[in-house]
Amino acid sequence: MLGLFKRVPPPIGERGERVAARFLKRRGYRILARNLRNRFGEIDLIVQPRGEPTIVIVEVKAGTGGRHRPEVHVTPHKQRKLVALAAQAVRRHRLHGRPIRFDVIAVDFIDGRKPAVRHYVGAFQSQV
């Protein structure tokens, strides 16, 4: 009877965030928070490079190999929003005085192949 139900894959954004978190862990980053939400928006990942005091705010964009790469959707408006969310996170979690960096990770899921991951370190700047 259960054979009638198909397993529904998670939404592409959720899959992209999982791939990005694994990618960062393999490169020595420590995951501090995932999907940190408030009424103004969400920070996908907050990570810390091994042996560094830097806090990294990561925006993950995922796509399926369409006309545009997913990272083009990190617009100046989205960047300003992430900066505001980061400022709130710094206050709330007492991260004052730590360097903050903003990275973007793009994940392309194309035809069932291994996802292509692009990591843009220091993708944009801010004075948080």
Please explain how this structure is put together:
The structure is a single chain. By secondary structure, the chain is α+β, with helices and mostly antiparallel strands. It has one domain: Trna Endonuclease, Chain: A, domain 1 (3-Layer(aba) Sandwich), CATH 3.40.1350.10. 25% of the residues lie in helices and 36% in strands. It has a five-stranded mixed β-sheet with strand order 1-2-3-4-5, with helices on both faces. The mean pLDDT is 90.
Which class in CATH terms? Alpha Beta
The portion of residues assigned to helices is: 25-40%
User: How many helices in DSSP terms?
Assistant: 2
Number of strand elements: 5
Second CATH tier, the architecture: 3-Layer(aba) Sandwich
Cα(first) to Cα(last) distance is: 55 Å
Q: How many structural domains can be distinguished in the coordinates?
A: 1
Contiguous low-pLDDT stretches (5 residues minimum) are none
| Largest sheet strand order | 1-2-3-4-5
CATH fold topology: Trna Endonuclease, Chain: A, domain 1
Radius of gyration: 16 Å
Question: For the residues shown, what is the average pLDDT?
Answer: 90
Give the strand content. Answer: 35-45%
Major sheet details = 5 strands, mixed
What structural class should be given to the helix and strand makeup? Answer: alpha+beta
Helix and strand element order? HEEEHEE
Topology:
Elements: H1 12-26, E1 29-38, E2 41-49, E3 55-63, H2 76-92, E4 100-108, E5 116-124
Parallel strand pairs: 3-4
Antiparallel strand pairs: 1-2, 2-3, 4-5
